[in-house]
Write a structure and sequence with these properties.
This protein is α+β, with helices and mostly antiparallel strands. It has one domain. It has 4 helices and 10 strands.
Length: about 200
């Protein structure tokens, strides 16, 4: 699944794929899509589109080596200047039904994954392995009385709308497939949270 086409976002074309395979074969597969955010899509040169870079990012952008770089690397470094909806849309398949594969739990897991990786400073998390703690959202944060538009139809959905840093929503695509979306609250005004099935032409 992917976010519906809209001028403020652009797929980075760098999906993250995770899978679990054991003696009985594959039991889990997830594909996560990231997007570049354009606050003013009509003028990409508008400074409003830029994000505040941390020192490491600023150094990476400013450091131009004396040797030629491949075009893909130049483009990658240049895109660091702009906000990213990092792994915002995750489509997950699980072969087994358990307490760990429910829609509510997968929504919680995706939300905590984004919080842990994108909001460490805001949450006061130290470098290194991250322990469980009050920074996490839990199943009690899940609201089960909402809908999400997928391929033009409103379907029953679950959401997490209590965290100060992110908003999350998810739904079943099939009995064994769920899609979850986690977006930073600061980016929500620029994104329409509706989904569509990714076609072969856009994949």
């Amino acid at each position: 699944m992917e976010l519906s086409a809209q001028p403020t976002i652009e797929d980075t074309n760098a999906p993250a794929i995770t899978e679990i395979t054991g003696f009985e074969g594959q039991s889990h597969l997830a594909v996560s899509l990231s997007y570049t955010l354009w606050r003013n899509p009509d003028d990409r040169a508008d400074p409003v589109n830029l994000k505040d870079l941390d020192p490491v990012e600023q150094e990476a952008v400013d450091d131009v080596p004396p040797w030629p770089r491949p075009s893909w690397l130049i483009e990658y470094v240049e895109m660091m200047r702009y906000p990213q909806l990092w792994e915002a849309v995750r489509t997950s398949w699980n072969s087994d039904v358990s307490e760990h594969t429910t829609l509510a739990q997968q929504l919680v897991d995706h939300t905590n994954y984004i919080l842990m990786n994108q909001f460490r400073k805001e949450l006061g998390l130290a470098p290194g392995p991250t322990e469980n703690g009050p920074w996490q959202v839990g199943p009690s944060s899940v609201n089960t009385a909402v809908t999400l538009a997928i391929d033009g139809k409103d379907v029953p959905a679950f959401e997490i709308d209590t965290d100060p840093f992110v908003y999350a929503i998810g739904a079943h695509v099939r009995n064994d497939v769920v899609v979850t979306v986690v977006i930073a609250r600061e980016h929500l005004p620029y994104v329409r949270v509706t989904l569509r099935t990714q076609s072969a032409a856009t994949a």
